């Protein structure tokens, strides 16, 4: 111990500015959710671009392969899933980029609240404004690919569940690359291999629905994947953000 | 315990101890690979189904095993680096990544070549080959991420985190790919899952496996020593050492 | 006053570049500590270490006599850090920006307090404009409004005077002194020469003569 | 010995090209890796020695310069 004072054991001692924490984590979480929602809604193009991209990619396939409805129907589940996955990927780079550039991320690291929880709030907003709209839009594109009837609900549901995992896993990559000036392509390289299990079970669920098999198992596994990513990803995101900001 | 860990973590100590270990592993690797190759290529009996093309197994399987083990080793080294801040662990992890990618490539290449006499095509979306391909991309990701940072400290930490994230995902990827494969290709013949192998086929495989692992350890020791010279080049002991080895 | 930030034998090495070593610090309530040094001497790094952002250092930190690791949450709850970048969102209005910081700092969302804080930094009338439409100096003032909005004893300010006009600089300097006199503590880097007061203390980093190296 | 003659050994029962390419590529890669590791090490030692010589010359007989404190960056 430097200095002459005896070490203080009671850290709550009379500090002039000290106050007991009040609203705590919930206040901070709610404010972060609200702020990110407002931010994204003010820059509507960032919400719309992935959706337009999704529609565009789906348009390319009939042109590139064949307009034959039967052929399209067989590959539709995979196509829809891959295109949605790429669209979700497209929006990832901006997840932390803005906060990194203007210094808010630094401030986020310095709140007494756990960074993992605040990061999770940001990911939740990302999913709400990319994953969920993609899931809702997919059935419309499914019609254009002559997706067999009876699988539309499962398509939307599996995408909604799956994109939540995708947002979480992708956020790890986004956090790792946010400090790099050209992190976009690298981000895809890091994140896409990790997306494969979600793709397998997501597209599998739609296929099972078309074949008339039970989809419960697929959806259960998608849910399990989400649970596992929910458990691990926030910590990885927090650790990655600290690395990106301070090295 | 703590002092031991940190002693082990000191580059200088590691440099000295690895100098003594290295020759043994090189010798073991050379011997095992030589014996395993001759035995596997010339003495092991031909497979009753695949004939002599099965001899590819002696490079394919060890490479595939090593490819996965190296990723795990890399993640463990990353964990050690992140928790105990032991730099040697990160140097080793940095040196393991390219070797792991090379092993994955060997496994993929030999698997594809093996596919020609077995399936009649160079590439099949076989579960194991697909998993290997994904593993190769994971290696590329780690290597690329490490290379993308201008600060080496940041690069080390980022690569460690990614390796750990990857290692959690590898079993998930493996199981989902297996599941996907059985769904789409029910009960076709997979090259590498062999129910029972006679001893004369199995023993050379074991020897090759040990040889590959010895090679990995020897090479990692050697390249980590080089990396120590590179990163610690401003340190006094490294300079003295360089003068000595002139 | 039990407000005390100490560092013992602090050393930092980044990518084999030694920024500083054997640094002993003892910062108490009522002080303004200016960290000085040439470019690349590690001023920002030191501030980041002392504000608990960077864990990559040797030596030890104590907050009120307790090792930093054990009281990190408590320390962060007494800290206000302003970095190079102001941390202000261009698409949000000053009020919205401050509301977020208020919530992060565990303050109740009181609009009156936010308005008062904005008025205090001379931004009355700009409360509802998107911050992106304000000048760089005004944006920094939004960040500076946090000094009043979320009272914290320890201020760590990295170049707070950047882009601020002369009147603003004088007001901010007076604000720092007032904070120190009321029992707070300020840790600051700046190229602006601070007026010598009883509260001001200097810490110099980096040897002379190698200014131009980095 | 699983083969009656050397030619049979090379032919591998018709699978020769496949077996030998796999093995050759593996051997080439492993060999290449070893050669690369050796040359890397030699190169590093050479660089260290070159730098040591240069510093001795610069020091001109004085004690070798070790570390400077502060924001010192090595030029190499």
Q: Could you describe the 3D structure shown?
A:
Chain C: Pfam families: ABC_tran (PF00005). Chain C: InterPro entries: AAA+_ATPase, ABC_transporter-like_ATP-bd, ABC_transptr_haem_export_CcmA, P-loop_NTPase. Chain C: This is Cytochrome c biogenesis heme-transporting ATPase CcmA. Chain C: It comes from Halomonas flagellata. Chain C: Keywords: ATP-binding, Cytochrome c-type biogenesis, Membrane, Nucleotide-binding, Translocase, Transport. The complex is a heterotetramer of chains A (247), B (246), C (214) and D (76). Chain A is mainly alpha-helical. Chain A contains 9 helices and no strands. Chain A has one domain (24-246). The radius of gyration of chain A is 22 Å and the shape is elongated. Mean pLDDT of chain A is 87; it is low at 1-19. The longest helix of chain B has 33 residues, at 11-43. Chain B is globular, with a radius of gyration of 20 Å. With 246 residues, chain B is mainly α. Chain B has one domain (20-44, 54-188, 200-244). In chain C, a hairpin with a 2-residue loop joins strand 4 and strand 5 (66-67). Residues 208-214 of chain C have low confidence and may be disordered. Chain C has a domain at 89-151. Chain C contains 6 helices and 9 strands. Chain D has a domain at 32-58. Helices cover 66% and strands 0% of the residues of chain D. Chain D is built from 2 helices and no strands. Classes of the chains: A mainly alpha (247), B mainly alpha (246), C alpha/beta (214), D mainly alpha (76). Chains in contact: A-B, A-C, B-C, B-D, C-D. At the C-D interface, strand 2 of C face loops of D.
Spell out the blueprint of helices and strands:
The complex is a heterotetramer of chains A (247), B (246), C (214) and D (76).
Chain A: H1 24-42, H2 44-64, H3 69-90, H4 94-102, H5 104-109, H6 115-144, H7 152-177, H8 184-211, H9 216-246
Helix pairs in contact in A: 1-6, 2-3, 2-6, 3-6, 3-7, 3-8, 6-7, 6-9, 7-8, 7-9, 8-9
Chain B: H1 2-9, H2 11-43, H3 57-84, H4 87-119, H5 127-148, H6 152-184, H7 199-231, H8 236-244
Helix pairs in contact in B: 2-7, 3-4, 3-6, 3-7, 4-5, 4-6, 4-7, 5-6
Chain D: H1 6-11, H2 16-59
């Amino acid at each position: 111990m430097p200095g002459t004072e005896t070490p203080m054991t009671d850290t709550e001692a009379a500090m002039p500015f000290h106050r007991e924490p009040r609203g705590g984590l919930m206040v901070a979480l709610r404010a972060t959710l609200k702020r990110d929602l407002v931010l994204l809604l003010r820059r509507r193009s960032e919400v719309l671009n992935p959706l337009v991209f999704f529609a565009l990619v789906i348009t390319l396939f009939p042109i590139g392969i064949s307009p034959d409805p039967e052929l399209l129907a067989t590959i539709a589940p995979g196509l829809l899933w891959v295109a949605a996955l790429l669209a979700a990927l497209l929006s990832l780079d901006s997840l932390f980029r803005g906060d990194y550039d203007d210094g808010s991320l630094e401030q986020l690291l310095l709140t007494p609240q756990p960074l993992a929880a605040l990061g999770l709030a940001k990911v939740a907003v990302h999913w709400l404004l990319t994953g969920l709209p993609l899931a809702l839009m997919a059935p419309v594109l499914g019609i254009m690919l002559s997706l067999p009837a009876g699988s539309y609900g499962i398509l939307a549901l599996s995408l909604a569940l799956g994109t939540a995992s995708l947002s979480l896993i992708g956020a790890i990559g986004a956090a790792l690359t946010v400090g790099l000036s050209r992190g976009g392509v690298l981000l895809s390289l890091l994140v896409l291999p990790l997306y494969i299990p979600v793709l397998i079970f997501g597209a599998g669920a739609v296929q099972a629905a078309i074949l008339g098999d039970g989809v419960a198992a697929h959806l259960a596994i998608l849910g399990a994947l989400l649970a596992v990513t929910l458990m691990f990803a926030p910590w990885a995101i927090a650790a990655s953000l600290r690395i990106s900001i301070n090295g | 315990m703590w002092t031991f860990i940190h002693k082990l973590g000191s580059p200088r100590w590691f440099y000295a101890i690895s100098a003594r270990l290295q020759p043994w592993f090189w010798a073991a690797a050379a011997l095992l690979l030589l014996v395993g190759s001759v035995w596997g290529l010339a003495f092991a009996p031909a497979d009753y189904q695949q004939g002599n093309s099965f001899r590819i197994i002696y490079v394919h399987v060890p490479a595939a095993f090593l490819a996965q083990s190296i990723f795990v080793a890399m993640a463990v080294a990353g964990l050690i680096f992140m928790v105990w801040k032991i730099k040697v662990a990160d140097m080793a992890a940095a040196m393991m990544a390219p070797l792991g990618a090379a092993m994955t490539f060997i496994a993929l290449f030999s698997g594809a070549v093996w596919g020609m006499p077995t399936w009649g095509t160079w590439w099949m979306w076989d579960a194991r080959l697909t998993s290997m391909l994904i593993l190769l991309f994971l290696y590329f990701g780690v290597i690329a991420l490490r290379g993308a940072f201008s600060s080496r400290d940041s690069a080390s930490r980022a690569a460690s985190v990614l390796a750990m994230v990857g290692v959690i995902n590898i079993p998930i990827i493996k199981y989902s790919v297996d599941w996907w494969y059985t769904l789409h290709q029910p009960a076709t013949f997979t090259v590498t899952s062999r129910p029972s192998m006679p001893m004369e086929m199995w023993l050379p495989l074991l020897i090759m496996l040990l040889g590959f692992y010895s090679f990995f350890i020897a090479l990692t020791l050697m390249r980590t020593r080089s990396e120590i010279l590179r990163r610690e080049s401003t340190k006094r002991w490294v300079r003295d050492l360089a003068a000595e080895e002139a | 006053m039990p407000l005390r930030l100490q560092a013992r034998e602090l050393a930092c090495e980044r990518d084999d570049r030694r920024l500083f070593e054997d640094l002993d610090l003892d910062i108490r309530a009522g002080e303004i500590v200016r960290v000085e040094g040439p470019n690349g001497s590690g001023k920002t790094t030191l501030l980041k270490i002392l504000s608990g952002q960077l864990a990559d250092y040797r030596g030890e930190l104590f907050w009120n006599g307790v090792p930093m690791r054990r009281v990190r949450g408590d320390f962060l709850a007494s800290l206000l850090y302003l970095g190079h970048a102001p941390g202000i969102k261009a698409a949000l209005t000053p009020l919205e920006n401050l509301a977020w910081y208020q919530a992060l700092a565990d303050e109740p969302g009181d609009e009156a307090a936010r308005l008062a804080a904005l008025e205090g930094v001379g931004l009355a009338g700009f409360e509802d404009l998107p911050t992106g439409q304000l000048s760089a100096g005004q944006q920094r003032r939004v960040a500076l409004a946090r000094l009043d909005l979320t009272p914290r004893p320890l201020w760590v300010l990295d170049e707070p005077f950047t882009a601020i006009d002369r009147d603003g600089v004088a007001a901010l300097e007076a604000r720092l002194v007032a904070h120190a006199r009321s029992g707070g503590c300020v840790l600051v880097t700046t190229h602006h020469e601070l007026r010598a007061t009883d509260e001001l203390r200097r810490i110099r980093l980096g040897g002379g003569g190698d200014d131009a190296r980095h | 010995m699983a083969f009656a003659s050397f030619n049979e050994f090379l032919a591998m029962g018709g699978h020769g090209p496949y077996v030998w390419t796999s093995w050759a590529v593996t051997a080439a890669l492993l060999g290449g890796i070893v050669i690369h590791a050796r040359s890397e090490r030699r190169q590093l030692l050479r660089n260290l020695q070159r730098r040591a010589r240069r510093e001795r010359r610069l020091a001109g007989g004085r004690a070798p310069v070790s570390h400077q404190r502060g924001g010192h960056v090595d030029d190499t």
